[in-house]
Amino acid sequence: MNLVWIRLLETVDAQGLAALASVVAVAGSAPREAGARLVLRPDGGFWGTVGGGQLEWSLIGEARAALAAGRGPAQARDWPLGPDLGQCCGGRVTTWVETFDARDRDMLARFAALEAAGRFDVAACPGEDGRVVRRVLSSADRAPAEGVVERFGDDGAPVLLFGAGHVGRALAIALAPLPFRLTWVDSRAGEFPAHIPANATVRVADNPVEVVGSAPPGAFVMVMTHSHPLDLAVTTAALKRTELGPVGLIGSATKRARFLKRMREAGLSDAALARLVCPIGAPGVSGKEPAVIAAMTAAQLLQWRDAALRIAHGGADWLKVAGAGRTRRH
């Protein structure tokens, strides 16, 4: 969950008190990784997850009890998942449960502003009063000798989506809860829905091709406009930018072959063309309904996001990743 401090601030302002349950360390197999968090409201509502099952149920119970007691020291606990909770994972999880009220508002607002601006790290450790003390780390800071380093803010992979038609809308909805930062592009302002997902920024562009030039390095591109000539122009521009990730194009194998022929005639190299993924979508499902295509394309984007992390550590390359996505037919 990315919006931890924003949710805490909203909850304190609305209900006067909020609780935060965090996974701060994991050993062995566990439902979630360190950094998984859950914000609980006094009215019982919550955001996020620490992994589900008995661990989450127990942590929510502890957070409710902490809210009932009011703002106080953080509660640290070590959970042997098998012996204590009967979970088959078998690992151990260390958690913190914290409470916040109006006395913490300045701190919550400061962290919420940092969270809205992007990613940031803090050094966190229990203070003398038992509450967790956090210090924002700069890029030059080393990890502290005591306590833990926590990461907050947006870690979404950038995606450029060209087209606000039926499939474009369905894909934007499918990506809304997922770790992506979406730039949604169309020349037709009236095609965008009234409500835009929080992780999406709309760009109404007379010439959508120009938006390709502003894409950050590593961005993924999905092309599904209302016009085949525009599809070709956007796809060509994206493939020319060798520092971008794979370029997905909605369409059939026939459309792919025709586009490849024209792009070769335009001088694109085989290495650039190898990044083209058409048809789009993870394999295994053949439905052509917009929601089905969107679901399978969202799964494919998650695969690309994981691959980008492996590539950063020398464990994969985009040619293999793009080649794995050519089995669907739309």
Automatic annotation (TrEMBL):
Domain XdhC Rossmann: 159-301
Entries under Pfam families matching the protein: XdhC_C (PF13478), XdhC_CoxI (PF02625)
XdhC- CoxI domain sequence ranges: 16-71
PANTHER family xrefs: ALDEHYDE OXIDOREDUCTASE MOLYBDENUM COFACTOR ASSEMBLY PROTEIN, XANTHINE DEHYDROGENASE SUBUNIT A-RELATED
Identification of the protein by name: Xanthine dehydrogenase accessory protein XdhC
Taxonomic lineage of the native organism: Bacteria, Pseudomonadati, Pseudomonadota, Alphaproteobacteria, Hyphomicrobiales
